[in-house]
């Protein structure tokens, strides 16, 4: 009878160890406490063990070791692709693996017609990057030349940073956004222009059309008016170029257009400004490439953002009176 006691004691210890192991396994592989979503970064070369450790560190799972065992026991084969993922603590383990299939990205909207500084300030206000970082990179085209198959300007990427909504990794910053903008420009704009030396001119005119015109059907007509004025060496007199010179988007007060000393002031200096005054969208670039044939030289905006067009200055003055009457209601 005495010989049985050690066996019984050993059996009890073994049974207790088994029970503790089962309890550990159950607790470790059960869903973690519910909490706010967390971001998990899967790096190149990360295996299952590394990803489970990251999930445990973020408290998205209770135990990396227990979940690892569960994966092997159940024959699960989670697919792990580099990227950043949004995981919800408290989810069942298979659900977490499903959440690791769809990368989490943030949407960054760059509006049509905005110049570099305006975009930079918007990005900083949204917490995406510092305005000064975006501006510095946008003024360093050489940094990006090897990434594109078209020639970039020497001093600034103004006009070449295609406006669109971009989906980026949460860890991305100004450099990644600019790279995507240039890639989009190369894919969507460059094919429209038959001759590379016409790109810059199309962007200059397109940027003015973008700033001046809200109605799509009027874009080519305004581009035609710009071409008419250039042909007869008449100053373009476009308010948006003065605003660009000031680097402020505002209502111009009386006489301001004649006081701003800048090569971008098309009231004082005839011809095209030296560069684009923002990044035009496709419609405005297409209008610049295919301006309408028109005899008009003037236009004035109405409250609904459409325009009245005129051939002579007398007609233009009459249109200004109509626009003012419409504004007064």
Describe this structure as you would to a colleague:
The chain is mainly alpha-helical and 329 residues long. Helix content is 44%, strand content 8%. It has a two-stranded antiparallel sheet with strand order 1-2. Helix 2 (48-57) crosses helix 3 (64-74), helix 8 crosses helix 11 and helix 9 (219-231) crosses helix 11. The longest helix is centred in the N-terminal third of the chain and has 26 residues, at 4-29. The model has no long low-confidence stretch (mean pLDDT 89).
Topology:
Elements: H1 4-29, E1 38-42, H2 48-57, H3 64-74, E2 83-87, H4 93-99, E3 106-109, H5 116-125, H6 131-138, E4 165-168, H7 174-188, H8 199-212, H9 219-231, H10 239-246, H11 282-289, E5 298-301, E6 307-310, H12 313-328
Helix pairs in contact: 1-3, 2-3, 5-6, 8-9, 8-11, 9-11
What are its keywords?
single chain, two-stranded antiparallel ribbon, 44% helix, 329 residues, mainly alpha
